[in-house]
Amino acid sequence: MSLKKFFLKSNLSYKIYLYYNLYIRHKCFLNRKKYSQWGEDLEIINFFQNKPNGFYLDIGCFHPFMYSNTCLLHKKGWSGINIDINQTSIDLFNLARPKDINLCTTIDEKKRDFKVYFDDAFSPVNTINKDFYLKLRGLFFKNEKFLNIKSQTIDEITNIHHNNLDIDFINIDVEGSDYEILKQIDLTKFNVKLIAIETHPIDNIESDSVPQILNFLYKNNFTIYKKIGPTSLFRKQ
Predict the structure, then answer these.
(1) Using CA atoms, how far apart are residues 35 and 31, in angstroms rounded to an integer?
(2) Residue 146 Cα distances to 110, 113, 127, 142, 209, angstroms
(3) Pairing label, strands 194-198, 222-228
(4) What does DSSP say about strands 79-84 and 55-59: parallel, antiparallel, or unpaired?
């Protein structure tokens, strides 16, 4: 039995493994130059270099350190709302960023329940997008595990959990449903300055929803600021 499977057997051992994941495996006590997978956070922190305090919305947050586009902002003194469909991700955020708002949910204006195609408690590819699941099935999702997640509207999340409506930075990484989430956010209402969203896989082939993402953002007066790896950064004009 693997160490991870052993620790996931009980509530107590699960909590121990969360601390192991943060402090031993990812050495969260060490300061690093970057935390994101491709260096996106270096461009993000540079964009906000003159803003010591701000607010982020991280949708599909996954991990407070590993592959995180908001960790440098958090260490700078920012706070935010972190959302993920995986409860383990939220448990990690509750330990690492207890002053942030950490929610196990997804965003949907109709407040529907969604089927979660679950790969692993510590996997970055858990998704509610069936097409994304089918593309990666075999390489991931080998245990055929499915969960359910309740959604909240973006206004519910911000009105209940965030009194100041200014959201300086939005990060969206939701494994195939990025446009579906993006189009539900009133970017003008929240006074968003910068958005990070995955538009290109590593092989540089555009995702199917890229034209819709670009059209939506251009209509909201956002233009491409930088492209780093699979991520495009869009800034408000």
Answers:
(1) 9
(2) 21, 13, 10, 11, 25
(3) unpaired
(4) parallel
Q: Give Cα separations from 67 to 22, 90, 117 (angstroms).
A: 13, 15, 21
Contacts (Cβ under 8 Å, ≥6 apart) of 237: 221, 222, 223
Alpha-helix residue ranges (DSSP H) falling in the chain: 3-7, 11-19, 40-47, 71-76, 87-96, 130-136, 154-161, 178-182, 210-219
- Model pLDDT for residues 145-187, shown as the tens digit of each residue: 999 999 999 999 998 776 667 899 999 999 889 999 999 999 9
Q: Which domains does the chain have, with CATH numbers?
A: 1-30 (no CATH), 33-236 (3.40.50.150)
pLDDT for 176 equals 84
DSSP H or E stretch at residue 29:
none
Dihedral in degrees, nearest 10, Cα atoms 189, 78, 162, 103? 110
Instruction: Provide the 10 A C-beta neighbour count for residue 61.
Output: 29
SS3 213: helix
Whether the model clears a pTM of 0.85, i.e. scores above it, the answer is yes
